[in-house]
Amino acid sequence: MEQMGLLIVLSGPAGVGKGTVCTALRARMPEIVYSVSATTRQPRQGEVEGVNYFFKTREQFQDMIARDALLEHAEYVGNYYGTPRDFVDRTLAGGKDVILEIEVQGALKVKKNFPEAIFVFLLPPSLDELKQRITGRGTETQDIIDTRMNVAVEEMNLLSHYDYAVINDEIDAACDRIRSIIIAEHCRRERFMPYVTGMKTTIEKA
Amino acid sequence: MEQMGLLIVLSGPAGVGKGTVCTALRARMPEIVYSVSATTRQPRQGEVEGVNYFFKTREQFQDMIARDALLEHAEYVGNYYGTPRDFVDRTLAGGKDVILEIEVQGALKVKKNFPEAIFVFLLPPSLDELKQRITGRGTETQDIIDTRMNVAVEEMNLLSHYDYAVINDEIDAACDRIRSIIIAEHCRRERFMPYVTGMKTTIEKA
C-alpha cells in the first residue's frame, strides 16, 4: 500500500542531544530524508548545495518569506536560516518520511504552518544530567549555566504542544522509541480507510 | 519513570491470523501480560485456573455480569466467555501492559467499557489471501466461504472504531508494527506532563 510520507519534527532544549540522536537515527533508518535548511550565510569548505543547505542571497530569502515558502525562519548572527516548504512537500509526496531537527521555538512555528506533522520532544533523563551536558566543557560561567537551565525548563513546559516525548537516557533506546513512533504513525487507522473501502468495493463487484 | 500499563486490544476478522501473531508477540515481548478470560465451560486436561482461564460456575458468571465485572462477555455453544475487568485493572496498576486478543464484536464491547484502551485491527494483505486462509483445510463449502468472506468485509468496515491498523503480511513485520505501537503509546506527551512539572518544581525550589 503506497502511503504519503510523514514529517517528523524532533525538538527539545539545548543540550538534550538532538544532534547526536539524529546522527544515530540516520544510521539506523537510512530510508528517512533529513530536511535541508535554506540560509543566507556563505557556504563553508566542502558544503554542497541542496545537501548541507540551500544557499540563498538575502533578496532570495526575503522573497521566500514573502511567498510563504518557509515552514519557519529565524535570523541568527546576521544570517537567515529557514525550512523550505517545497523540499518537505515534494519528499512527502514521493512517499518518504522527512525528519526536521529544530529548536523549540522553531518547532512551534512549524506547528502553525504544518499542523499535520508529528512533534517529538526530546527530554533529558534528569535536570542534573541536563546541567552536566550544558556545563559540558567547563568554560561557561555559573550565570550562563543558570540562564540556560531556566530556558530549558521553560521550554520543557512547551511539551504540551507536542505529540510525543522521548527521554534521551540512552542513545539506542531513544532511537528505538523514535523509530517506533514513526512506524506507529504509519499504522494510524485513518491511513487504511481507503484500503478497506477498496476491499469492500472488490467483494461487492464479485 | 513509573507508568501505568496500557491495555492493547488486538482484533480483526476470522482467518486474519490473530492467534499466530499473538503467539509470536509473546515470544518477542515476554514482559507483556495476556488477558485471561473467565468461562463456564469445564476445564480440559492440563488447563490451569488463572493461567488458561478463570473457571466459573454459571451462577458466579451471571453474578459477574450483574456486578459489571466483565469488560465484555458472550455465550458460545451453551457456555459463557468473558474478560474480567479486575485482572486487567490490577495488571495495569502494577505498570504492566495487557494484550487482549478478541474478535471484532467483542472488541467493540470492550471499547464501550474501557475506551482508554489501544485498539489495533489486524488486516489481511489482500482479500485473496484472506479467502485462502479461510478456505484453509479445504473442508468448507462455497456457501460457508462466501458467508465468512462477507462477514470479514463487514467487520473490516468497523476499522473506523479502531486506533491502528496492522497488515498481517509477514509475521515478523506485523509483530514489529504492534511492538512499535505499544512503545509509541508509552511515549504520548500526556504521560510525561507530571515528569516535566516535577522538573519545573525542582528548579524553582533550587
From TrEMBL, chains A, B:
Entry EC number(s): 2.7.4.8
Keywords for this protein: ATP-binding, Cytoplasm, Kinase, Nucleotide-binding, Transferase
Chain positions recorded as ATP binding sites: G12, P13, A14, G15, V16, G17, K18, G19
Subcellular location: Cytoplasm
Pfam families reported for this sequence: Guanylate_kin
Catalytic activity reported: GMP + ATP = GDP + ADP
Domain (Guanylate kinase-like) ranges: 5-183
GO cellular component term, pick one: cytosol
Molecular-function annotations in GO: ATP binding; GMP kinase activity
Function: Essential for recycling GMP and indirectly, cGMP.
Family (UniProt): Belongs to the guanylate kinase family.
Name of protein: Guanylate kinase
Species of the source: Paenibacillus pinisoli
Taxonomic classification: Bacteria, Bacillati, Bacillota, Bacilli, Bacillales
